[in-house]
Amino acid sequence: MLVTRMNAIVKNVLLVFAALLPIVNPLGLAPIFAEMTMDYDQATRRTVALRVAVNGMVLLVASIFIGGYILEFFGVSLAAVQIGGGLVVTVAGWRILNRKGDLPDRKAESQPSNEEILSQAFYPLTMPLTVGPGSIAVAVTLGSNLHEETHFKLIVGALSALIGIVLIGLSIYLCYAYADRLERLLGANGTSIVIRLSAFILVCIGIQIMFNGLEDFYHYLLTAPKT
Q1: How would residue 103 be classed by pLDDT, with cut points 50, 70 and 90?
Q2: Domain residue spans in the chain?
Q3: Torsional sign, CA 220, 141, 212, 83
Q4: What percent of the chain has pLDDT over 90?
Q5: Between helices 78-97 and 26-36, what is the axis angle to 10°?
Q6: Residues 16, 22, 24, 25: is their CA dihedral positive or negative?
Q7: N or C: which end of the chain has fewer CB atoms below 10 A?
């Protein structure tokens, strides 16, 4: 019996982790994080990485357990979240893709204060770049299954979701905190290429998220009862 329960927990943890990791994609976003924090010292960068990881875990936990109720309370559909959030992701990726400043120019700029640095940990580094509308939509979908299970499966599902999200947060911190090493490994030209490719992929992801929301709206219009 214990082995069966452990197998169920492991299976659900892997499900949550596998569903969220490709969308959060901390490894792919690490070069963008490195580029956006290149003026920070190593200690500050790791502090920001920790805050992004914690903020991301909080957003995912809230999305899984109460996200559906919040959307229902405000009368907002998941499709609307996808369209609005996808637009934000697209704009953010487009700005990074077309950024022209290089390292010497940026170093010449006035250094931001600690408050300004840490304020960026939530927007835009956590939301929408790391945990965006796609991640929130998946988390809300995963959470919707928790309310339809038996008492035991509800506990197993909740525990598995928490463990899976902690693993996601750990992967975010490790990829972001050591993004500078990846930057040194790639070199200036390699980092620039990876940043542009990652930004382009981010734009594509944002457009795909908006398309998914529009598709949901289209199906709703087709199936809505006519008066």
Answers
A1: very low
A2: 2-223
A3: positive
A4: 20
A5: 50
A6: positive
A7: C
